[in-house]
Amino acid sequence: PPKLCILNNCSPSQLEGLCSFLQLSVCPEPFLGRFCRWLLALTPDLSYTSAAILAEQLFLRRVMSLTQPPSRHLMAALASFCSKYSQPFCHVVVAAVLQEPGEGAEQTKLVCELVEECLEPHCVQLVLSQVLKMPLSEKLLPVVQAMLGRQEMLPLELLDLLVLTLCRQASAFATSLDYAKLVTTMLTMYQSQVS
């Protein structure tokens, strides 16, 4: 709708106030998908800051409170939003999931699904660089596995950092099946670069 052009004219604090007024963080999920489709039609595109605020308002609370797989409406909204604004989404929502202590099984599965199906290659690399900035954990191993599952070659500096991280923390994962699968995938995909 033409009224949504106001999103391009708001300051960050105005946009946060507008999201709060419209109660976007708790709007019904079927509406959420429709709203995200409207965002894709906006011209010009949202600024990075505006997209980051909307990612936080629309998705952060929903994703962090998942206790079962996301609904098809939520997945459709996420896919729609990430098709144009995946970088701010990764900086806000994915970063929060990765930094959350504990298992967060549904959140981790969701990030894996987004990595496998929705994110652009440069955003997959962004997620990997976020993962490599923190201590590796059982929770993060499936995320790295999902990235490698895309069969896209990593830039050399990221690959070196990943190999170094896996080597340094090998003893902590001596009995981990996920770690073993990850190392096997690495050796298969990057035979010539990994000695």
TrEMBL record:
Signal peptide, first to last residue: none
InterPro entries per record: FANCE, Fanconi_anaemia_gr_E_prot_C
Domain of life: Eukaryota
Domain Fanconi Anaemia group E protein C-terminal: 3-194
A GO biological process held by the record: interstrand cross-link repair
GO cellular component: Fanconi anaemia nuclear complex
Protein name according to UniProt: FANCE protein
Gene source species: Oxyruncus cristatus
Taxonomic lineage from the root: Eukaryota, Metazoa, Chordata, Craniata, Vertebrata
Gene behind the chain: Fance
